[in-house]
Amino acid sequence: MLGLVAVVGTLFLMGRADVRATLETQTLSWLMERANLRASASVDADGDDGQLLAMAEPEAIQRATATNPAELNRQQAYVAYWISRRYNVAPEPISRLVQEAWTVGHHMNLEPTLVLAVMAIESGFNPFAQSHVGAQGLMQVMTRVHQDKYEIFGGQNAAFDPVTNLRVGVQVLKDCIRKAGSLEGGLKYYVGAANLVDDGGYAAKVLAEQAYLRQVANGVKLPVTVSLPQAVVQAEVPAAPAVAAKAGAAAASPAGVQPAAPVASEPAPVQTAPARRVEQVAMLTGIR
Looking at the whole model, is its pTM more than 0.85? Predict the structure, then answer.
């Protein structure tokens, strides 16, 4: 039947030149319209969108350090959103770091909130941060001191990959705690103050931030504006009463609460805060 219809249609068109001309005209118009649309698309491709399309990388999403906060468990989500508001960073990359802190922290037998607290104090969650002595990335690891650790991730530039910096930083922190024999001592080693009398209040800040993160993880509605202890300025030759007063205040104050400063009748000479991670060598001799 289809063949018969086709034959009849062909014979009909052969006998009707006017109908054939009309069909040819309509077909030509349709083809011209399609050609114009293709030409227009080609012109648009020369503009900004076209230049972007020329550089398109559908696999670029694989390089993004981000996770949907909805994929986190309740504790992790509480922490991620609180950090996001406290440090003015997007929740998606923070969610990825929170997720990684939980995984690596449990693997290394370190509390995830401690890992996040170190990142908070060290870099404020800036993956491209660098100190004047060369500590780099989220965890402010001395890249040139720990080249061997970065080699397994492809080289020193991996220090600026947030997840890699976190993993290396946690390993360094774990080594410091083991070498010092305590968490507070390990933090002192980590900041490069192992051979100094005072760490400039670094450990107190980290532990205070960790205490806040613990509360948030447990569902406490904590303001993002909560403050950290101020750096302790220590007298060069403190009087015995002042030392006793400071020790007593420190013992009585819970983590996250700033102890009252000792009162002195005259201003005493001050000791400057330790240089940040002075090569991180003195504190890590033998640690690799």
Answer: no
